[in-house]
Amino acid sequence: MPAQHVTLEYFPDLPEALVEILAHTRHITVLTGAGVSAESGIPTFRDAQTGMWARYDPMALASPEGFEHDPETVWKWYQWRRQLIAENRPNAGHEALARLQGPVQKLTLVTQNVDGFHQLAGSEQVLELHGNIHRNICSVTGRLIDADWVRQHEDLQPPPSPHHSRGLARPGVVWFGEALDSATLDAAFEAAANCDLMLVVGTAGAVQPAASIPVVAKERGARMIDINPERSELTGLADWHLAGPSAKWLPVLVDKLTAAR
Ligand code: BV8
């Protein structure tokens, strides 16, 4: 069935066929991207970088080469993002996904985001494919560096690592060109292969291997919903494309599913 282009203002409700699916789904796997945090004031990777970061390419900054070349600038970019995240809150979309844990027999929440907003909104067992911006690790050994150490050395940008003489503190995220944690990725693909509904929210579907997760779900027979104001590289796979912001659509979807149970 081709993706139906359902727009919120015309459909204060959801198509009956979709409500029927929601009423009987057993296992939902969700994949979120930067778009789910857009209404929390966190710019997506696609958004033009603002202010002093406008002249930088996030793909270059979020890479080992970028850090190697200019650790201070990369460190400052992450400190700026951490501050932005600290000044903002999860939105109604994050909160709706946290509510989804109740009525659904099995829910697997997989995110490409590093802001920790799903956990802050109350979601448990979040599979963070790309790590978490609030963690710091040693650039040589990869070992965790505790927050006290970073605070004690915050005059140095980045701080040195306590684990290796040539190490520096770097954010505990997966950079472009780095491998994802295999256990996390395996769990995400496992959940995609076994779910009956794949919910894709706020992602351009351009970053691999994350973008292959919904493909596996579809190959294994799951229905798929794509929530995004724009069409993405994954929209064509979806049975329904709910065009519009996730902070509007997700509460509608979760309320309908809950009422149908
Ligand atoms: C790896 C952490 C191998 C850092 C991030 C071809 C095939 C396979 C791989 C590759 C390939 N070519 C290149 C690669 C490698 C590369 C890749 O995929 N490149 C792409 C760009 C082509 N992948 C990797 O390097 C990965 N590693 O492949 O390793 C390997 C194996 C063994 C040994 C060594 C290596 C690692 C990728 C992880 C990169 N790290 N994040 C940080 O955050 O600083 S990814 C980063 O990009 C973020 O996580 C972010 O989530 C993601 C961007 O994607 P989106 O989430 O989709 O966000 P985007 O801004 O793009 O789009 C936002 C969407 O939201 C839009 O569609 C918009 O319309 C929508 N939206 C806007 N507003 C709203 C909304 N939606 C809903 N509501 C709204 N209000």
Describe this entry's structure for a reader:
By secondary structure, the protein is α/β, with parallel strands linked by helices. The chain has two domains: 1-41 and 90-130 and 180-261, TPP-binding domain (Rossmann fold, 3-Layer(aba) Sandwich), CATH 3.40.50.1220; 43-87 and 134-173, SIR2/SIRT2 'Small Domain' (2-Layer Sandwich). It has ten helices and ten strands. The protein has helices at 16-24, 58-61, 64-69, 71-86, 92-99, 117-120, 147-152, 182-194, 213-219, 246-259; strands at 4-7, 27-32, 106-111, 126-128, 131-138, 144-145, 169-173, 197-201, 223-227, 240-243. It has a seven-stranded parallel sheet with strand order 1-10-9-8-2-3-4, sandwiched between helices. Strand 5 and strand 6 (144-145) form a beta hairpin. It is elongated. The model has no long low-confidence stretch (mean pLDDT 93). Bound molecules: ligand BV8. Ligand BV8 binds at residues 33-35, 38-39, 44-46, 62, 112-114, 130, 173-179, 202-204, 206-208, 227-230, 232, 245-246.
Highest-level CATH class of the largest domain: Alpha Beta
Strand count, sense and barrel status of the largest sheet are: 7 strands, parallel
* Binned strand content: 15-25%
SS elements, strand count = 10
Structural category is alpha/beta
CATH topology of the largest domain: Rossmann fold
Shape designation: elongated
Helix content: 25-40%
CATH homologous superfamily caption of the largest domain:
TPP-binding domain
Number of helices: 10
Report the order of strands and helices.
EHEHHHHEHEEEHEHEHEEH
Low-confidence stretches: none
CATH architecture level-2 label of the largest domain: 3-Layer(aba) Sandwich
Overall pLDDT metric: 93
